[in-house]
What we know:
The structure holds 2 protein chains of 2 kinds.
Chain A: E1 25-26, E2 32-36, E3 46-47, E4 54-55, E5 60-63, E6 72-73, E7 78-87, E8 93-101, H1 120-129, H2 142-145, E9 156-161, H3 170-177, H4 179-191, E10 198-204, H5 208-218, E11 224-229, H6 238-246, E12 261-265, H7 266-278, E13 284-290, E14 298-303, H8 308-314, E15 324-327, E16 334-335, E17 349-353, H9 371-375, H10 382-391, H11 394-399, H12 410-414, H13 421-439
Parallel strand pairs in A: 1-14, 9-10, 9-12, 10-11, 13-17
Antiparallel strand pairs in A: 2-8, 3-5, 4-7, 5-6, 7-8, 13-14, 15-16, 15-17
Helix pairs in contact in A: 1-7, 3-5, 4-7, 10-13
Chain B: H1 19-41, H2 43-66, H3 77-87, H4 96-110, H5 123-134, H6 136-139, H7 310-315, H8 322-327, H9 339-351, H10 358-377, H11 383-392, H12 396-403, H13 414-434, H14 441-458
Amino acid sequence: xxxxxxxxxxxxxxxxxxxxxxxxxxxxxxxxxxxxxxxxxxxxxxxxxxxxxxxxxxxxxxxxxxxxxxxxxxxxxxxxxxxxxxxxxxxxxxxxxxxxxxxxxxxxxxxxxxxxxxxxxxxxxxxxxxxxxxxxxxxxxxxxxxxxxxxxxxxxxxxxxxxxxxxxxxxxxxxxxxxxxxxxxxxxxxxxxxxxxxxxxxxxxxxxxxxxxxxxxxxxxxxxxxxxxxxxxxxxxxxxxxxxxxxxxxxxxxxxxxxxxxxxxxxxxxxxxxxxxxxxxxxxxxxxxxxxxxxxxxxxxxxxxxxxxxxxxxxxxxxxxxxxxxxxxxxxxxxxxxxxxxxxxxxxxxxxxxxxxxxxxxxxxxxxxxxxxxxxxxxxxxxxxxxxxxxxxxxxxxxxxxxxxxxxxxxxxxxxxxxxxxxxxxxxxxxxxxxxxxxx
Amino acid sequence: xxxxxxxxxxxxxxxxxxxxxxxxxxxxxxxxxxxxxxxxxxxxxxxxxxxxxxxxxxxxxxxxxxxxxxxxxxxxxxxxxxxxxxxxxxxxxxxxxxxxxxxxxxxxxxxxxxxxxxxxxxxxxxxxxxxxxxxxxxxxxxxxxxxxxxxxxxxxxxxxxxxxxxxxxxxxxxxxxxxxxxxxxxxxxxxxxxxxxxxxxxxxxxxxxxxxxxxxxxxxxxxxxxxxxxxxxxxxxxxxxxxxxxxxxxxxxxxxxxxxxxxxxxxxxxxxxxxxxxxxxxxxxxxxxxxxxxxxxxxxxxxxxxxxxxxxxxxxxxxxxxxxxxxxxxxxxxxxxxxxxxxxxxxxxxxxxxxxxxxxxxxxxxxxxxxxxxxxxxxxxxxxxxxxxxxxxxxxxxxxxxxxxxxxxxxxxxxxxxxxxxxxxxxxxxxxxxxxxxxxxxxxxxxxxxxxxxxxxxxxxxxxxxxxxxxx
Lengths: 440, 472
């Protein structure tokens, strides 16, 4: 049988060997933590504490700002130092609660529960209250995702363990170290849906030991399977993964639920397990620091709110001064202007390069090679979309399916003329969507 | 930190392909065929290639200087254009012709339309067509010098030991008899090869008794009204045969050939008075014997190295030596002769992912099928062999692997490329089988190039997850 995959995609150097073998280590979050109010898609959370308040580890410091939103919990005990805007990874100032760490890690009491005895609404409530969001990067509130209009139509719960982004190994470490939590989390999620719904843990074939570990952990669970997908970027993109597993196609005006699927990242499933079974809210995650500028590429369990600087410090500083530091992986991550940026629920890695691989590249004219079309997982014509975007022709852009772009960057990656395809197409897509909103 | 961090939009890594690397790999893939051409045809052909490339690069540089654009010769696209044009030149062509051709390709076809990526047809082919029109004599004269390989060209027409002919033809195995009795009424046309095909010859090659192979030229006796001396009479290694028979000078092609060993129509005895099929009645040629086709060989001795291109022979329905054609031991332009080396280069490009396999495969495939059907319909004795030979002859291989796959002038979508390639197969077949020119590849590609925008328009892919039927 051929490996499950999708059409298109690229094969960048994955750099995973740098940090894959390093077990998850603890990390001291440092004296000051920054909790952004927008760590998820949807309305920002509303601060529930005031300057000077003492907070405990696991205490809610901001409540959900709406239905599609999520509360934020403190990962340390200490005092609220300020509530003020701080930069996020994209460099945009967003509201944040700054907490001074007292180093005592005094925790609130968590209330474990037996998921077998919980009702559907209780499970969803516990997930919502714990502030669980999609930890693969999108940050969509998980409780909302797990409560589609018609739960009976969902027949696939896909646990996304593809980790197709180069250099990242945090999901892989979770698979290796916490398989039972993943199975427990997935079992909880399956309880929310009908008996015909099955859970599939999707792992790329470059992680054979993780596949083995998960197969062992899922043995005897008749509703849970392990699926092996082809190692290719962006295998872990939601639409690509759904297609690879079910051959169903999802477009920009659909939700995965419309195709009978719910896709959750591995770490999200672990967070669900912790929220429902242990009653522990979401304030930690596994994080990779890697790249050729990292002194010792490895995986940390980091507290949300930890500044990136502290992670680099804990790693022993840089090998030499890096030219580029990316929050996330090199394909979709954000290049940072400085390290004064906190970890959020969705940040998965810090990739540090001694030399910026794209600094010296000059973009030239399109030679019509079609390499962008070959690799586009959305089967678009990026070269054409770029021309349209540069002409700012919104109608044509929509007609050429520009809104279907997922921003994976395969086109830019593959373009021999080094044209800035993804960035312009994405920008244009944002413009068109903003225009649409205005009209409504 | 002292150094400022670089901030740029994702992705932060890029694939290995750059425009110049793509062009460089194309040059590398072309080199074997070029080297072979130079070894085959001599030092002048090397000069042809060099002049062609140099002219292309200089034209590009000068053009961009004048237009105050950034100099882009480093992307090597001009080198590819120049090299391809040089490979399309007859080996002995005066050097100023490729120089003009390359300048035309770069200035008129490429830069005037906006430079790299904007030319609507393949610059090298457009220039070649321009040259064929402007300098038709020089561009169709294939009088090769012998290169280092010093090989005796094996060509061209090997009329098969006339199976169906009557036994009068005593075909000794090694008898190399070239009996061409072409009548060309107009002397000035003698070099434009297939004009000669209008005239028919009747030969009854009864008397090809040549027992010896080499250089024992038996004089060919001919009755011909328009007899001319061939220019080259040296090295008559091909034994010429005596041809008896009347030569019908009527150039209308109605001449009946009783040709028992008439090579026309691929060794089938009867020739349908097809204008092109009935000419150049060669008896048997083996090894060194060739039917002089360009210079209608009315001389008593026929040059061993004829200037006929294999294609011209094929057009007349003659068969040629497949092996010689495949490996390039034949006449032709500098770079087109070795189908084998071109194939190697093409496969190399496919394997490293520079060109799309769809274009050459569908192009050659459709052309082969059409040719096979035609050959069978025309009653050639071995349609398969004829097809194989047609595939290896002329510029088809070079065209299919390196010209049709030109990024800029071929469709960009997968479906479009298949349509484009099928169209090329059809056009090439039409040109070659029914056209007046013997070569159809360049015209076919140029014509299809013009249709590329249209093909692209109608083959735009539907985005993932979009059901086109449901769309308004």
